Amino acid sequence: MDLGIAGKWALVCGASKGLGRGCAEALAAEGVNVLMVARGAEPLAAAATEIRAGRASGTGAEAQFLAADITTAEGRAAVFAVRRDFDIVVTNAGGPPTGSFRDWERDAWIKAIDANMLTPIELIKATLDGMLARGFGRIVNITSSAVKAPIDILGLSNGARSGLTGFIAGLARNPEIAAKGVTINNLLPGKFDTDRLHTTLVGAADKTGQPLEKVRAAQIAQIPARRFGTPAEFGAICAFLCSQQAGYITGQNILPDGGAYSGTF
After folding, report:
1. d(Cα 212, Cα 205) in Å, to the nearest integer?
2. Is the separation of the CB atoms in 13 and 20 below 8 Å?
3. Under 8 Å CB-to-CB from 88, ≥6 apart: which residues?
4. What SUPFAM superfamilies does its record include (predicted)?
């Protein structure tokens, strides 16, 4: 299927590895030019090089990169100094640490909200009007399945990401946005085989005193698909949400989790 987005420009955050990289690869394979942003310069440069040589080869798509902390005003300014207008924005920032709410002071909460709620809002604010003027835009926020089913050791993430979800629910349905070719959706990943998942599993192992492999096996056993997801299949979902064909999907929380969430709604 031709997704109809070749030649568009995408900003993909957290793109050096994991789910962000999966999204960058999938978009580049569709001929989308990507500006990949992450904090680690070395893995980011390697990821961009591999995408140019692999998924983007033959499509004519560019894979540019910028090492910056997108959760800071300085980082965002650096991004928009490279390029001001984007047709597609994939927001993504590393989740806050695991732990108990008794151990988190105000600074920990502010940092989590800054990274996982306010940063996506700032990126939307900076790019939305250009999308509206051109009559096309796709914003995909990578959040977490914890928005639907909170995880006890991820209280900081539960709170900050739920705040973003509530904000997007109202913004995406504004007729001044939805009627002008711009969609805003959230991707709520379940358990994907990434460094972030490994960190969460280590936290669970430390909390319970069980071996890491036993914790990992127990987590897989709870997923009807009996496996963790891959960044490549997550990226494919993201690319479809950015497609011309997905223009009638907005304000939605898409839950790729292998069937782990057991609720009807």
Report:
1. 6
2. yes
3. 5, 8, 9, 10, 11, 27, 32, 137, 138, 139, 140, 242
4. NAD(P)-binding Rossmann-fold domains
- Please, are residues 52 and 227 in contact by the beta-carbon 8 Å criterion? no
Torsion, CA 69, CA 187, CA 20, CA 92, rounded to 10: 0
What does the alpha-carbon distance between residue 142 and residue 23 come to, in Å, rounded to a whole number? 10
Q: Which helix (H) or strand (E) holds 137?
A: strand 137-142
Residues 6+ apart with CB under 8 A from 228: 191, 192, 193, 197, 219, 220, 258
CB 136 within 8 A of CB 182: yes
Cβ neighbours of 114 (radius 10 Å): 16
> Any idea what DSSP says for residue 117?
I
pLDDT tens column, 40-64: 999 999 999 999 987 666 788 999 9
Cβ–Cβ < 8 Å for 189, 256: yes
What is the distance between the alpha carbons of residues 76 and 156, in angstroms, rounded to a whole number?
A: 23
Separation CA 34–CA 8 (nearest Å): 9
Residue-wise pLDDT for 73-86, tens only, equals 999 999 999 999 99
Structural element, H or E, at residue 33: strand 33-38
Closest CA to 63 of 99, 91, 30: 30
